[in-house]
Amino acid sequence: MILENFDQLSNPQKAMFADTCNKLLACAFLAKDKKDNKELYYFVLSFKNYFDEYFGIIGYELFLDRERGAIQLVSAENTNLLKLKKDESLVLLILRILYHQHLVQTSINDNVIITVDEIHQKYDSLELKKKINKTDLVAIIRLYRRYNLVEPLGDITQGNTRIVVYPTILMAINTQTINDVVDSLNRIVSQQGGKDNEEAV
To answer: 185 and 173 in contact (C-beta within 8 Å)?
Structure first.
């Protein structure tokens, strides 16, 4: 077993292993290009066998997308899912759609960047009876920042503030085509009178 060799790691490496495990259990995602994720991301790459074995013991599986620089931790039993309110689910799907739209115009070495206004515009285009207000959107963006899906580049109460959308969004909404995302969005919109929660992350 790989973990039998754990004592061969240096004390700083053991501390980094513990910090990275706790981060993944708390946030589920790591994005290589997010400043406070970078060191952890490369540490996982260097010691992936250790992480695979440890998380396998406690019923989790680690997925690594080297091409996009993204890592996801998934519960094998689908436990510990984050329950999202309808607004939170809609914004997550909107972020995924905007990511897809901007990816075409983005250099391979650059991150996808959108604005707060674009989220509002896409949400308004759904023509829901209840519009999303600034306070709610700020709270939702902060939620997804905590899960390493986005990074605001300024005051998120301002419409022109830019937001980095990381490739981890592709793991958070794992669908084959963008049409599946649009279908999911339309399905939630059509259920306005239904449940207020969706299991999405």
So the answer is: no
The answer to whether the predicted template modeling score (pTM) of the entire model surpasses 0.90 is no
Mean pLDDT by 10 residues, the chain (201 residues): 85 96 96 96 96 95 95 85 87 94 82 95 87 92 97 94 96 79 80 50 48
Listing DSSP states for 23-61 in one string gives HHHHHSEEETTSTTTHHHHHHHHHTHHHHHHHHHHTTEE
Question: Over the Cα atoms of the chain, what is R_g?
Answer: 18
**Is 13 contained in some domain?**
yes
Hey, what are 154's tokens?
A: 């300024």
The per-residue b/e assignment along 177-199, b for 16 or more CB within 10 angstroms, e otherwise, is eeeebeebbeebeeeeeeeeebe
23 with 60, same domain: the answer is yes
What is the total count of domains within the chain? 2
Residue 199 in domain: no
Is residue 96 in some structural domain? yes
**Which tokens belong to 59?**
């019923």
Can you give the residue range of the structural domain that contains 101? 83-192
Three-state DSSP class for residue 74: strand
Can you read off the two tokens belonging to residue 96?
């995924």
Domain holding 157: CATH number?
1.10.10
